[in-house]
Amino acid sequence: MTVGQGSAGVHAPPAGTQGAAGITYTTVDDTYFEARRLKRYARVWSLWALGVGAVISGHYSGWNLGLSQGFGSMFFATIIIAIMYLGLTFSLAEMSPALPHTGGAYSFARTSMGPWAGYITGIAENIEFVLTPAVIVFFIGSYLTGIFGTDPSFQPVYWIVCYALFVGLNVIGVELSFKVTVTVTVLALACLAVFYLSVIFSGKFDFSRWALNMGPGGVELPNGGGPFLPFGVAGIFATLPFAVWLFLAIEQLPLAAEESHDPQRDMPKGIIAGILTLIVSAFLVIFLNTGIEAGAVGYAKSTEPLLDGFRALFGSDIAKILAAVAVIGLIASFHTIIFAYGRQIYSLSRAGYFPAFLSVTHGTRKSPHVALIAGAVLGLAVMIITWFSFGADAGGAAIGGTLLNMAVAGAMLAYFMQGMSYIVLKKKFAFLHRPYTSPFGIAGAAICMIIAAVTLYFQLTDPVFRAGVIGVVIYYAIMMAYFLLWGRHKLILSPEEEFALTKGESEYKSH
C-alpha cells in the first residue's frame, strides 16, 4: 500500500500566489506527488524498535563522559534529562496522531506557528539527524579498527562501507529497513541485559568503592567512599549535555507517521513504550557500569565504557569478541537514524523548503533514496574534511567532540520549538481531533522547553561544546540565507502545508 498527496485542497490559497510571511506556493499536479510516494508498513513493534534503536548506542558509550563531575552529578542530570524527554515524548505522542505527517517536528511547528518557525525547527532536526550517524559511524570505525587490527588511517574506509551498506538497506525498502531495525535493536538490548545480569551476579559490584571513588576536585580515592557530588550542585548542570546522549533521537518516531499502518493508534504506543524502555536501561547502565572496577574516575575517561565493563568482569582475553558484540548497539543507532534523516530531508524537500528533487522516491521500492544518499554524502563530507584537516588524532577528537555537540545543540533547539508547538496547538487548535492526550499537558511541554534551554546554555559554558554551537550558528546562517533568497518562493502544498493552511480542515489523502 502506498500513500501520497493529491492536488491542493479547496480551502488553501491558490498555488503560485504570495502567501503569508513572504511565502510563495508553486503550482504542481498529481504527478509531482506520484513520484514521491511512501509505503505503509510499520506497527507498534516496529515503531518501538525505531525509537529505542536510534538511542541505544548512547547506552554503550558517550554518556560516561559526564562522570567527570562525579556519579551523583550524572545521576541527578539523568533524572532531569529524563523528565525533559518525558515532557517531550508525551507531547509528541499527542501531536503525532493529530498531525500524522512525515514532517514530524517541522510539521508541528509549521501548523502552529507558520512556515518560518517550521523551517527553523526543520533545520535544527536536520543538523541533529545528519550529524548523529556521522558521529556513530566514527565510533563504529574505532571498534572495527581494534577488532581487525588495522591502521587508524584506514578508518574512513570503514565509514564509507558502513554508509554504503546501511543506506543501501534503507533504499531497498521500508519492510527490510524495519526488519533490520527490530533485529539489531533487540540484539543491542540483549547485549545490555547480559551485561546488567553479569554485574548483578558477578559479586564484583561495590557502589561505594567504585561509583564513589572521586573526591573533591576530581581526585581519585583508592578506597572509594567519596562524596556523592564532588563538584557540588554546579556539577549537575555541567553534566546535563552528557545525559542527553542516553535519550537523544527518540523524537524521530513521528517521521515514520506516513509509513505506519495506523499512526493514530500505534504512534502513541510506540513512543511511550520506547521512552519507558530507555529510562529503565539508562539508570541501569549508569548505576551498574559505574559500580564495578575502574569506577567513576576510570569510566569518565573511557571511549568504550560498556566494553571496559565486560573486561572488568571477564578479563581481556575475549576483548575482540566483546568488541564485536558491542558494535551491535552502534549499528542499531546508525541504521535507525539513517532512516530518520532520510524522512526528514524528504519531508522538507517535498514541501519545497529544500530543493524538490531530494524528495523523489524509488520507482518500485517507494523509499526516499535521493534523500538517503544526500544525507550520507553530507555526513561523510563533514567527517572526511574534519579528519584530513586536523589529522587522524585531532580529527577524531573533533568528530567525537565538536560534531557530537553540534548534534546535541540542534536537538535542544528542536525540543524547545516542539514544546512551543505543543502549547500553541493546545491553545489555537483546540478543535483538532487528538486520539491521545498527554497526561502532562502544557506543563510537561513547558518543563521540556526550560530544561532544553538550560542544557543549551551550559553547552555554551564549555569550550568544546561552544565550538559545536558555533558550528550550528554558521549552518543556520547559510540555510536561512537560502530560504530568504530562494526557498520561500518555492513552497508546495504537501500534506503538512495543506493541513496547516486549512487549519486542519483538509484531510490527509491516501491512495
UniProtKB/TrEMBL annotation:
Name used for this protein in its record: Amino acid permease
Keyword Zinc found: no
Membrane topology term: Multi-pass membrane protein
GO cellular component: plasma membrane
Subcellular location field: Cell membrane
Any one GO molecular-function label of the UniProt entry: transmembrane transporter activity
Keyword vocabulary terms for this entry: Cell membrane, Membrane, Transmembrane, Transmembrane helix
Transmembrane segments: 44-62, 74-93, 129-150, 156-173, 180-201, 228-250, 271-298, 318-341, 370-390, 396-416, 436-458, 464-485
PANTHER family given in the database record: AMINO ACID TRANSPORTER-RELATED (PTHR42770), MEMBRANE PROTEIN (PTHR42770:SF7)
Leader sequence segment: none
Highest taxon listed in the record's lineage: Bacteria
UniProt KW Translocase keyword: no
Main location: membrane
